[in-house]
């Protein structure tokens, strides 16, 4: 009888117990976008500067007089031609303050006033027209009796005698020098031109203008 020798199979070693801290998996890294970060900072800065600018502007704004409707040089400035606006004003500018708007109304424009512009103190005058020795005469003219170029207050013109109804030639037409004060377009299509002339010529010009036998000639505006 044979005796079989049985060999013992070595047992697998038992797992060693964890004695140190357990290491956890790291989360994926977040990729930073430098351009996005810079843009955000810039937006914040611009917003802050804009707010500061608006605050400064509103704090430094002043109520002044502006022109609402066009006024020609020499014309009377009506209250409806003016409006009060609030703007940031340069102290070096001599603009009429809002407190003087009623004082300016009724005076005359020393220069042509365009709508939307601020009213400077030098743009108005309290000079009364006509002056001593002058007379204001209204001359009604058909469209063919005056230039197509729009007339302006202050323009120097000549009032010229024209031929009579029979078309006879005027060899030595009467000519009067005048200065335009105001121009008004009438509903019938004619134009009424108020002109300043020497007082001793006013009666003659008014009589000739009544006949309709006059034309207006614009002199050179260059001085």
Provide structural commentary:
The N and C termini lie far apart (152 Å). This protein has helices at 34-60, 101-104, 199-211; strands at residues 61-67, 82-88, 108-109, 124-125, 134-141, 156-161, 175-185, 191-198, 214-218. A hairpin with a 5-residue loop joins strand 7 and strand 8. The protein is of the alpha+beta class and 223 residues long. The chain has a 5-stranded antiparallel β-sheet, covered by helices on one side.
What do the pLDDT scores average to?
79
- Total of helices: 3
Proportion of residues in helical segments: 10-25%
* Uncertain stretches: 1-7
Number of β-strand runs: 9
The coarse overall form would be elongated
In terms of DSSP E residues, the strand content is: 25-35%
Draw up the topology in text.
Elements: H1 34-60, E1 61-67, E2 82-88, H2 101-104, E3 108-109, E4 124-125, E5 134-141, E6 156-161, E7 175-185, E8 191-198, H3 199-211, E9 214-218
Antiparallel strand pairs: 1-2, 3-4, 5-8, 6-7, 6-9, 7-8
């Amino acid at each position: 009888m044979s005796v079989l020798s049985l060999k013992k199979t070595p047992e697998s070693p038992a797992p060693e117990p964890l004695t140190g801290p357990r290491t956890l998996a790291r989360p994926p890294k977040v990729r930073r976008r430098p351009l996005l970060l810079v843009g955000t900072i810039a937006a914040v800065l611009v917003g802050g500067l804009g707010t500061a600018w608006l605050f400064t502007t509103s704090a430094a704004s002043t109520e002044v007089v502006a022109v609402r409707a066009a006024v020609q040089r020499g014309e009377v400035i009506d209250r409806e031609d003016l409006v009060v606006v609030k703007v940031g004003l340069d102290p070096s500018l001599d603009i009429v303050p809002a407190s003087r708007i009623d004082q300016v109304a009724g005076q005359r424009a020393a220069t042509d006033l365009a709508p939307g512009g601020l009213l400077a103190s030098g743009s108005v005058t309290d000079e009364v027209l006509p002056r001593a020795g002058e007379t204001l005469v209204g001359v009604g003219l058909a469209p063919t009796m005056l230039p197509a170029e729009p007339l302006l207050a202050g323009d120097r013109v000549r009032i010229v005698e024209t031929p009579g109804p029979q078309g006879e030639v005027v060899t030595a037409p009467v000519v009067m020098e005048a200065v335009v004060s105001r121009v008004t377009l009438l509903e019938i299509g004619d134009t009424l031109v108020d002109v300043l002339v020497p007082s001793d010529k006013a009666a003659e010009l008014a009589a000739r203008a009544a006949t309709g036998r006059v034309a207006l000639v614009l002199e050179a505006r260059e001085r």
